[in-house]
Amino acid sequence: MRVNVSRTALIVCAAAAIVATGGANAVVGTADVTAPAVQPSGTGTPAVSTGGDSRSAGTNTSSSSTPAAATASPAVGALFSGGNHFCSASVVHSPAGDLLLTAAHCIGGDVSGVTFKPGYHDGIAPYGTWQVTAAITADGWKSSSDQDLDFAFLKVAQPGSASLESRTGANQLGTNQGFSHTITLTGYPDGTEQPVVCTGTTTQSGTYQQRVACPGFPDGTSGGPWVVNQDPNTGTGTVIGAIGGYQTGGATPDVSYSAYFDDDIARLYSSAIS
């Protein structure tokens, strides 16, 4: 587990990964955060995209990646506590437009001092600073830190009438999508003021774990979304993972892990929006 001991005690933050079998030739770039205008998610759009249940699929040990995307999504941002960012999160479509997805290991019991800055870069929060008001984690994570349940939803608020989602757009939540995808991976490394973005190919790693070879994702990138079918105009798509899971995301910055998004996260999402 990769932990920055200078962070507050309630926050444990780790990021990408264990060294893959075989070489990875991904290229990771520092993102251009001057994103295009984002349209709010339309009403009537399904909040959760479901696919066939592939839990019984065999493990695929190959992995490859391609150069980083040119622009970071405005729906991805950094979580802050005590003036420093420590983990990553992303906006997920919800009826109220106030929901984030991150890794469960990023969040402790008290979230009163945690804020979210979508599209953050170079000390600038172009879409404002949002207070985290609640954290929703699975019972199995609360009781035993089950690595297969290392995901969490956060509710946020800010003075004013506009929702977070109306300003940044949002990813749809994808469940039971299978293990092989080309994804866009985004996260905020500790000690940097810009996100890193990588395009890579996911594979299965364990029964309920998935992985992607993307170098350059150290501490701070935990909670960063794994997005498929990203729209180049809005920067949003369908999120099928978040850096976490095995070894809270991995032991080195070169390969990232995520708990597999199946019925467990679908139930947690239903609880978060109810």
From TrEMBL:
Fetch the PROSITE patterns from UniProt: TRYPSIN_DOM, TRYPSIN_HIS
Is-annotated flag, keyword Signal?
yes
Q: Report the domain of life of the source organism.
A: Bacteria
Q: Which UniProt keywords apply?
A: Signal
Instruction: Output the Gene Ontology terms for molecular function.
Output: serine-type endopeptidase activity
Q: Where are the residues of the annotated region Disordered? A: 35-68
Q: Where is the composition biased (Polar residues)?
A: 40-53
Biological process according to GO: proteolysis
Give start-end positions of Low complexity composition bias.
54-68
Q: Which residues form the Peptidase S1 domain?
A: 49-274
Residues annotated as signal peptide? 1-26
Q: What is this protein called?
A: Trypsin-like peptidase domain-containing protein
